[in-house]
Structures are given as C-alpha cells and as structure tokens.
Write a structure and sequence with these properties.
- The complex is a heterodimer of chains A (397) and B (474).
- Chain A has twelve helices and eleven strands.
- In chain A, β2, α1 and β3 form a beta-alpha-beta unit.
- Chain A is 36% helix and 13% strand.
- In chain A, strands 1-3-2-4-6-5-10-11-9-7-8 form an eleven-stranded mixed beta sheet, sandwiched between helices.
- Chain A has one domain: Amidase signature (AS) domain (Amidase signature (AS) enzymes).
- In chain B, the strands form four sheets. In chain B, strands 1, 2, 6, 7, 8, 11, 12, 13, 14 and 15 form a ten-stranded mixed beta sheet that branches. In chain B, strands 5-4-16 form a three-stranded antiparallel beta sheet, with no helix packed on it.
- The N and C termini of chain B lie far apart (72 Å).
- The chains are: A alpha/beta (397), B alpha+beta (474).
- At the A-B interface, α6, α7 and α9 of A face β16 of B.
C-alpha cells in the first residue's frame, strides 16, 4: 500500500453523518487537511503541515466523506511521472480521489486507471487551501468509478467561498439530473484534436464515436485550426505564472534549507536549487526566461489565450457537447515530451471549461473519451456521462 | 555651465484602514512584533488573498482628493523579488492597471507663481515586513516583524515636473494636507506613514532631453527630501562637469552626514498579473458615490474663508491646511465669534497652548463651544484680553464653563465708572511727572498711565473706559 499512499489516516471509520457517509476519499498532499503533512510532492514543502482544511475538504467532510489518506503525487501535481493518481481506486482502497489538474492530470490518471476523471469549470470550486503551481490553469480534479459519485461530490464543493474571492460572482449550476435525449443532442468532434494521435489511437477513437452514434446522438465535425496553439499558450502562460508564484517556495520558513550559504541571496539560490526536481526546475527556468527576457511573448500568449477562449465558446455554441480523444500517458523527462502527452487535454485548463474522461466499456476495443462543454455546464456534462454509463449497463447499444 | 534639475517623486502613503490589504489582521504595525499576523499575510501555502473593500474606498478617496481619474478596471500583479521581508517572493502591486491616472496639485513656486505639478498615476500595493538588524553577542542577526506585512499602501507617482527642491517640498506639504482632508492617512514622514523617493536627473538649462536619473531614498521629513534633492543636484552637476557619466542607480540619504550614498539595488523584473486577486471594477455610480463623500478640499475652503469670513489669503491658507484647525475655526464662528477674533485667538493663543501641552486639538479639553464662550465674553467687554488669556489656562485644567471660572476667580472686567474714577484719581496723584508729560503732548504717557490703572485694578479694569476717562480728566 505504501507504494500508493504517502500518508494514511484512520478517519474513514469516524466520518461525520451526511449524505456521502461511507465514501472513502483519497487526496493528494497538495489539498490542505489540518494537521496532515502537506508537501505537494515537493522537497520545497518538506515537513509542512497544513493549518486548516481546504474549503473543498471541509465541505466534503461535512457531507460525511471519510478521508483515508494522501496518495503519492508528482512535484506540485505537475505531470504523472511519479504520481499514483487513480491507483487507490484501482486497488479499491478508496471510492474517490482528489487529483490536481494543471494540464489534464486527473483525466489522464483516470484513463490509466480506467475510471472516470473530471475537471470542473474554473472558478466553480474554491481554491482555498489548494497548493499549486499555475493558479489560472489548475483546479481540483475528481476521480471515481461513476459520474454520479463525481456529481454528488461536486454538488457539495461547488459555489461561493468567503475565503476565495477569486471565484467569479456567478449562479451555482443546478445539479439536479438534467435529462439527456440523444436524438436532440449534438456532440461536436474537433477534427484537429485527433492530430496528436497515433493511427491505432485514431481507430480506437473512431470506435468510441461509433458508440455515441449507436446511442442515437448526432455527431458533428467541427474545425479549430489553432487547436495546436493550446499547448503553446499553456506552456508560456503557465510557466510564467509558475515561475512567479513559486517564489513563495523559498525554503525559509518550511521546506528543506540547503546548508553552506554565506548570505541570504545564496540561501535562496542553494535552497531552491536543491528543493525542486528536474521537471519543475526546467519549467520554472522557462517561465523566468519569458518573464524577464521575452515578456512580449508572454503578453502575446495571454492575448492568444483570450482568442482561444472565444474560439471554443464559438464551437461549443454550435453543439451541446464536445468529444475529444485522450492519448495514453507516457513517461516524459523533457518538457516538450511532457507537454506532448497532454496535447488533447490541456485545452480545458487554458479555457477553464469542464471536461470528463469516460473510460471505455470493459473489454471493448475502443478508447476512452473526453467529453467537454462550455463553462458551468458541469452538471449537464456529468449527466451525459451518467447516461452513457447507464445505457452500457442496459446493454444497448 | 548651468544645469536644470528634472525631478519626479514616488510617494508611498500608508492608508489608515482598520485591517490589512488582503486579510483581517489589524493594521497596527507598531504593536508587539508579530502579533498581527495570519496565514494570509505570512503567505502560507494554500492561502488566498482577500482584498479589503475598505482599503479600496480609502485609496479611491485619496485619488479623487488629488484630482485623479479612477480607472474602471484595475488589477494586482506579482512584483517578483527575493528578500526576507517578503515571504512569498513577490509583492502584490498594481503594475499594469493602476487604480487611477492623472491628477495633480497646484503650488506657488519660489517666485510666487502658480505651478501645476502633475501626477502620472496612483496604484495600490501591500507593504512588506520590517527587518531589524541586530547583534546577538558578536553574531549579527536579522529579525523579521510581519505586523507591517500586507499593510495597505498607495503609491503616488508624479510626472517629472519638478525643477527645484522647493517645489518638491511644497508639493509634499500640499499632498499631506489633501490626504489628511480626505481622511485616508496621517501622512507622517516621521512615523513612516508617508515615504518619499525622489528620481533626479540634470540637464543643461534650455535643454529638453531626459537624462539618466538617480533614485534617492530614506528621507524621513519633508525638509530632508529638499536637502537630499539639493545635495543630489549639486553632486550630479559636479560629476558631469568632471566628465563622469551618471548611471542609473539608487542612493540612500544620510541625514547625519547630509549626503547621499549608493545602495545595492534589489533584483526586480517585469510583473505578472495575479489570477488569485480579482480585477477591481469600479462603476461610474460607485465613483460618483465616492466623489460625494469627498469633503470640501483645502484650496476651496481657503477661498471660501476669504470670501465668507474676510480673512487674508495667507490666513485662510494657514487655517485650511489642517482639517481639524479649519473645522475648529468654523465651529467658533458658528458660535458667533467674529472671524478675525476667532482666527487671531486660535492661531496665537489656543494652538500654541495645545502644542505646549502635547495635546491634539481634537482631543483637547478646550472644546470649540467652551473657547467660543470665552471669546464671546471678551467681545461683550465682560472680561479683558489679559483675563481671557488667564481663563484659557483654567479651561485646560477644569471642565467648568468659562462663565463659572470667570465668576469664581473674579476675572470679570471692571467697567463701573465710580470704581474706575477712584483708581484713576489714585494713579494721577501718584504719577505727576507722567501727567505733566501727557499735558505736554507726549502720547506715550497715556499708555503708561493706562497700564498703571490696570495694575491698580489687578488687571480687571476695562482699558477702553480707562482711556476715555483719562482723556476727559487731562
């Protein structure tokens, strides 16, 4: 079990009474739980213990969820290389997991574990108590065996939080189960989103589209020639944000302070040098480059981001949902490879829209798919996932 | 060669809000070190800043008071630098979208000519922690006090419109007055609630080019700002004449040696927008509502004092410079005291007395109502000026009404002719030489004789009536 969990807690037995009582939740150690070690997988936060519960942790606990422990994560949740996300579900050691989603980690981890993985709309769930790296791109992902469990959890954690004023002032979506009627529902397929796939993956994706067809949904081809720019925009904006925000991980108050510094400038340099792993360090270097040497490129990337958000709004306005492929997770050392594996997922982090990974039916020769909708369509999106799961259970198609 | 200085100021003003800018901690930097702190202002992992509405209001009032234009959208950015006074490695400041743009203050320059000094923009930012460098035995140590971390600041950045130290000092005095008026800050350089950095460059007179500037910090009074600028102008002039290049750097003012010396600059880069702090959006309605909360500003008040109360320009400017003094003056006139009497007694008697006692006018026991009571009795000749001055000291020591003090201590002026006649006869008999002088046409003797009668009356006689009676008798 220790290969999955970095911290275990017996609380599951003593969970509060509530609608979600009995649900065992594993979290990553970047979601604050008062008194738990919360190092976000980084030496820069070694031995840091959270003072308060994150808002979403607090709300889930009040709903009766039992926290069973923390699962191993990549440094600051960046990528899946040393992450055990999804494994606690696979091993049936938990019924749900909270997994930070910066570029698609929760959805790729779900694909790896053949479970459902959901990234909510940005701004729907409080980020208070969440330790991360790219504030404008990341949010908490939810993993579980069924879209219904995810919906039940999201219902409890969504909505305004007086401790996170960055949440936009928007009405909370209605989480009562919307009806899905396939003949009147159109699902868009973005042609260019299939470009990063291998031939085999493309065939499996087409098989997944066939399932939607058989279920009676209308499929519609859509084109977004700039789909490849999501990666570029994420890489520049994300790395600059990370480089600036990671300033707080300086190993002065907590974390591992490197010995041998003669003054405090050296202390910062040596400690940060020793604290961060290779991938995060190269990401921070890249961000520092754009921030200090090519700020104009960062500004261009921000403008491009606004354009991509508008492009996606235009596409989602033409259909009810989108369906996109998910490429299999691959081990990545260099930043470029790292980005390549998230090529079809990071659009949702750039635009802030919700996305659900739905695994294929067991034994089928088709890929899992990513379903997406406009911002705040979370409840409808999860209802679609639920509909597909149920229709598989009924054996049709 | 004659040089002309080009000077711009960056003024940090600490807002007098009850709480810090991004958390509910009390905004009292002077408390026991590290007593006003929380996970937000210590920037613990997972903390999210929560912008104070009160701070935005105080900052907006300050902007409006300086004639600046509030921007419909402003936002916070991360200003990256690594220093132990800043635990998160960046300061939240409005680098790209400031709270207001424009504005300015009109001063009188050295030659009495009006000159408008423009403000480029005003932005909000958080203050950083205070570092204390001490010795523990032979080991130098640095202590960090986070009480000030996150305190709400605004930074007022001027255009490089200043040419002389005098203009800078006049601007700062007027700025202080205006900010005190709107009630956003005490603006005390001594207490650090107003901090001024000056950017100074020089150029040959007649030239319009902008040369490399030098930033000067660490002045803790308006006087020092003037001295530091004057020093820096002469230092740069000498350097240029000696053929040295001026390089961009920061210097610290040394108030003891009265020189500036170079300091090591902090590493600073471009600022990145902070997604955790929402954009500040100000609607036209809200801005108008804030404008409605602006008090009458000092220049307008001074003008009104001249028109309404017949004060001279200088008197009006002096009275209106401090909102408390101006308010007190108006309270006196409201109680029926003649404006000139109010102005005269307030500035020459009450203010020095308050200051000598180390009090503040607003908390002095001599309320405007009590002081007006005294001045009105003076106007009705019930007491004379000497007695009024005496009674004033009693007003500080007891809370009795001035009428009661005057009755109890016997300060009431003697205007009864028969009593005064007797006193005058006494004095005339005792001072034949002065009587002879007066009869010989020496006017000075009259004053002497009046003084003698006053003395004989124990200071209570009405000098006006004495003069009349004496004139009749001689």
């Amino acid at each position: 079990m220790d290969s999955i969990f970095c911290y275990r807690h017996p609380e599951t037995a003593t969970a509060q009474a509530g609608p979600l009582q009995g649900l065992r939740l594993a979290i990553q150690p970047n979601f604050s739980v008062a008194g738990w070690p919360t190092d976000a997988g980084s030496r820069a936060l070694a031995h840091f213990t959270a003072l308060e519960d994150a808002t979403l942790v607090e709300r889930l606990r009040q709903a009766g969820v039992g926290l069973c422990g923390s699962i191993r994560m990549s440094e600051f949740g960046f990528g899946l290389a040393s992450s055990q996300a999804g494994a606690a579900l696979q091993q049936q050691a938990a019924d749900a997991e909270l997994v930070l989603d910066l570029m698609g980690e929760s959805r790729l981890a779900a694909a790896r574990a053949a479970v459902c993985g959901f990234k909510p709309s940005y701004g729907l769930v409080s980020r208070f108590g969440l330790i991360g790296l790219i504030p404008s791109m990341e949010c908490c992902g939810l993993l579980s065996g069924s879209p219904n469990t995810i919906r039940e959890m999201l219902k409890r954690i969504a909505g305004p939080d007086e401790r996170d004023f960055s949440l936009p002032d928007e009405p909370v979506p209605d989480f009562s189960l919307p009806t899905i009627t396939p003949p009147t529902t159109t699902i868009g397929v973005i042609t260019e989103a299939q470009n990063p796939l291998s031939a085999e993956e493309q065939a499996q994706f087409r098989a997944a589209l066939d399932e939607l067809n058989r279920a009676g949904f209308n499929l519609r081809e859509l084109s977004l020639p700039d789909f490849g720019l999501f990666s570029l925009v994420h890489r520049i904006v994300g790395s600059v944000e990370a480089s600036s925000c990671a300033g707080r991980y300086d190993s002065v108050r907590y974390g591992k302070r490197a010995p041998g510094a003669r003054n405090w400038n050296e202390m910062y340099r040596l400690s940060r040098g020793a604290a961060f792993g290779l991938l995060v360090k190269s990401y921070l270097f890249q961000g520092a480059f754009f921030q200090f040497e090519r700020y104009d490129a960062y500004e261009d990337a921000c403008r491009l981001r606004a354009r991509l958000v508008a492009d996606m709004q235009r596409l989602t306005g033409q259909v009810d949902f989108l369906v996109l492929p998910v490429a299999a997770a691959r081990a990545a050392e260099a930043l470029a490879e790292h980005y390549a594996q998230f090529a079809t997922t990071l659009f949702a982090n750039v635009t802030g829209q919700p996305a659900l990974y739905l695994p294929p039916p067991s034994g089928a020769a088709q890929a899992g798919v990513q379903l997406a909708g406009p911002r705040l369509s979370d409840a409808r999106l999860l209802a679609l996932g639920e509909y597909l799961v149920n229709s598989r259970r009924r054996g049709n198609p | 060669m004659d040089f002309e200085a080009v000077i711009g100021l960056e003024i940090h003003v600490e807002l007098n809000c009850a709480t810090k800018l991004f958390c509910d901690c009390p905004n009292r930097p002077g408390d026991e070190p590290n007593s006003n702190i929380c996970p937000i202002c210590l920037w613990f992992p997972g903390a999210i800043p929560r912008l104070s509405q009160a701070a935005v209001e105080k900052a907006a009032l300050l902007c409006l008071g300086l004639g600046a234009e509030l921007q419909p959208r402003s936002a916070f950015d991360q200003k990256v630098y690594y220093y132990p006074d800043l635990p998160k490695g960046y300061q939240l400041s409005q680098a790209h979208l400031p709270l207001s743009r424009g504005g300015g203050i009109e001063i009188s320059d050295e030659h009495g000519k009006p000159k408008k000094l423009r403000i480029h923009h005003i932005h909000m930012e958080e203050d950083v922690a205070k570092l204390l460098h001490e010795m523990e035995g032979r080991q130098p140590i640095s202590l960090v006090d986070f009480n000030r971390a996150g305190a709400p600041l605004v930074e007022i950045v001027t255009e490089p419109d200043f040419r002389t130290p005098y203009e800078a000092m006049e601007f700062l005095k007027a700025l202080r007055t205006q900010v005190r008026y709107v009630g956003s800050s005490e603006c005390s350089m001594e207490n650090g609630t107003m901090r001024v950095d000056a950017n100074i460059s020089i150029r040959p007179c007649g030239s319009h080019q902008m040369n490399t500037k030098v930033e000067v910090k660490n002045m803790n009074s308006i006087r020092h700002v003037g001295d530091a600028i004057a020093y820096e102008i002469s230092r740069q002039s000498a350097a240029v004449l000696a053929g040295e290049a001026i390089v961009l750097h920061t210097r610290l003012w040394d108030p003891d040696k009265k020189v500036t010396a170079p300091m090591r600059a902090k590493f600073e880069g471009p600022c990145v927008p902070d997604p955790a702090v929402p954009v500040i959006e100000l609607s036209p309605d809200w801005i108008e509502k804030m404008r409605g909360r602006l008090p009458e500003m000092p220049a307008a008040r001074a003008e009104r004092f001249v028109k309404q109360h017949g004060l001279t320009g200088d008197e009006a400017v002096f009275l209106s410079a401090d909102p408390e003094v101006a308010g007190y003056f108006e309270a006196l006139t409201g109680e029926g005291v003649a404006p000139r009497t109010a102005m005269h007694w307030l500035t020459t008697q009450l203010l020095p007395a308050v200051k000598a006692r180390g009090q503040e006018l607003s908390r002095s026991p001599v309320t405007a109502a009590r002081f007006a009571g005294l001045l009105n009795m003076l106007a009705r000749d019930e007491i004379n000026a000497n007695a009024a001055r005496e009674v004033l000291t009693h007003l500080f020591d007891s809370d009795a009404a001035p009428e009661a003090i005057i009755s109890a201590k016997g300060f009431r002026q003697v205007s009864d002719q028969s009593v005064l006649d007797a006193l005058i006869n006494q004095v005339l008999a005792a001072q034949p030489a002065a009587v002879a002088d007066l009869q010989a046409g020496q006017g000075k003797a009259m004053g002497f004789l009046i003084g003698q009668v006053m003395q004989a009356s124990g200071g209570k006689a009405n000098p006006k009536i004495i003069r009349e009676l004496l004139a009749k008798k001689i």
